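The instructor's notes for this session suggest beginning with a concrete chain rather than abstract definitions. Hand out the sequence below and ask the class to guess, before any prediction is shown, which regions might be ordered.
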Amino acid sequence: MGDRKRTSTATPAAKLASGQAATPSGRRLGDLQPDPEMWQALDGGPRLRAILEDFYSRVYADARLAPFFDGVTRERAIDKQYNFLREKFTGEKCYFGDRPRNAHHWMVISHELFDYREELMESCLERAGLPDHLVERWRSVEEIFRKQIVKSAPFPKKLRGVELPFEGFDEVELALGFVCDGCAGELTAGTRVRYHRRTGHTYCTSCVPDPGQTDDPRSKLSFEPPP
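After discussion, reveal the predicted structure:
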C-alpha cells in the first residue's frame, strides 16, 4: 500500500462523472455506468461484503476514523456502503440514502484524512486479492466524491439546490425497513420517522416526540474528531 506508482485507470464512466467529460442529459454528478468486470470480480456481491467487513472492522478500531461513526452500528455502516457501491457498480437502484455531499455534510475531513481513509481501503482491496487495475478503478470511483466530502467546516445539506437548516429534525416516510437509533426498535417500511439533519440519526416518534426538537439525543461528536 502506498508504494505502487499510480496511473489513472479511470473508466470513461468515471471520467464522465468526475467532470472530465460532459454529462449527458439527465445524469447527475457521480452517476456511473455499470462496471460488469468489477461486479464479476466481486463475485456478484459476497466478495464486496467481505471487503467491507474487513474495512469497517479496521475503521471502528481506528482513533481517527471511528468518531465519525459514533452511535452507528458497524453492520449498518456496512449495509449502507454495500448498497451504495452495488448501485455504482451494477446500475441497480438499491441505495436510498443521501448522496455523498449530504451524507458527509457535517464532517470536517481534510485531504490528508481522505487519503488516509483511501489507503486503508486500498489495503483491504489488496488483501482480498482484487487485481491491481480494479483496485485503481475502485479508487478512481471514490476519488470522484473527494470535492463533495473534503472541507474545512461543516456545511448545510442541500435539497434541489436549497440549503436546509443545519440543526433540528425532518420527518420522512421510510421506503425500507430500518432500526431506530434511539431504542433500537424495528421500523417497517411506510413508518413515519424523524431524522436529524446534521448527524443523520433516525428515530421513531416515541424517542423524539417533539418535531421542534433541535438536539440529537445521541450526538456526542464535535465537528472535528481528534487528530
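Then share the key points. Residues 12-22+29-155 form a domain with the Globin-like fold (CATH 1.10.490.10). The helical segments are 12-17, 36-41, 46-59, 74-90, 100-103, 111-127, 132-143, 146-149.
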